[in-house]
Amino acid sequence: MNRSLSQQLNRWRSPKSFYQNTQKLVLPCIFFGLGLWLYGLYLGFFEAPADAIQGEVFRILYVHVPAAILALQLYFSMGLMGLVYLIWRIKLFAYALKIFASMGFLLSVITLITGMLWGKPTWGVYWAWDARMTSMLILTLVYLSILLFQRNIRSPLLADKLTAIFSIFGLLMMPLIRFSVEWWHSLHQPATFSLFKASTMHDSMLIPFRWTFVGFALLVLGLMLWYLRLEILRRNLLAQWVQQIIQNTKAKN
After folding, report:
1. Of 81, 153, 169, 226, which has the highest C-beta tally within 10 A?
2. Burial zone of 213 (CB within 10 Å; 0-12 exposed, 13-18 middle, 19+ buried)
3. How far apart are CA 38 and CA 15, in angstroms?
4. Angstrom distances, CA of residue 62 to CA of 46, 66, 180, 212
5. Whose CA is closest to 146, among 173, 132, 165, 174?
């Protein structure tokens, strides 16, 4: 049993095997996730009642909160992958770190922009140097730094090592961002909803949020698989199996 499990893990951690095993996952994740997300947005924007205090502006949460949660989760995953890569030198994890950083940066930017749009009518200003906003800005800059490593360091191996190290040290920021609302005086209210636990948010608002989160998560997963597969091809361009894929593609066209 242990041998069989080891063989399965070896299959998935190989760039070639991962590329082959995920071929049929990408498009279903993207289209199914997009459908669920749009359905959730429809419920949130047109079916859910306005918030008693914030009014219509609260609907930004259906974009803002899923992006914020996923931006944090991706960086936490990067820290774990960076540790595994430095210990066991699994190349696939080095490839994934770059893709996770790109998607995490995009999600953190979306979080900041939607947070500012939410903040203006709620607090009267776009930016207030709130603990949560400031920590999210720092996370965005960390993501940007990792992308700059990848772009400007000519040695892919050195860039991968620095990315892994930076990702591990960045894990220290996770408690800061997650609990900043509870630890310091913050304009942000504490969490009023949860995906799996009892929530103080009414079901008419909570159910659309769950749909938007699940759909958005699947959409992000599909896009990351798409770009990770492209990264695998790019980094293994001279490999025989990649050349065979290129030849087959040219033959079909």
Report:
1. 81
2. buried
3. 33
4. 12, 7, 21, 6
5. 165
CA angle, corner 131, sides to 129 and 137, nearest 5? Answer: 70
DSSP state of 195: S
SS3 state of residue 138? helix
Q: How far apart are CA 241 and CA 251, in angstroms?
A: 15
> Could you read off the pLDDT of 216-242 as tens digits, one per residue?
999 999 999 999 999 999 999 999 999
Residues 63 and 110 sit within 8 Å (Cβ to Cβ): yes
Work out the pLDDT band at 5, boundaries 50, 70, 90.
very low
Contact 224, 103 (CB under 8 A): yes
- Give the pLDDT confidence of 25-79 residue by residue, as tens digits: 999 999 999 999 999 999 999 999 998 888 899 999 999 999 999 999 999 999 9
Amino acid at 102: S
How far separated are the first and last CA of the chain, in Å rounded? 44
Examine the pLDDT at 194 and tell me if it is beyond 70: no
| Dihedral-angle region of residue 55 (phi above 0 means left; psi in -120 to 50 means alpha; beta otherwise) | left
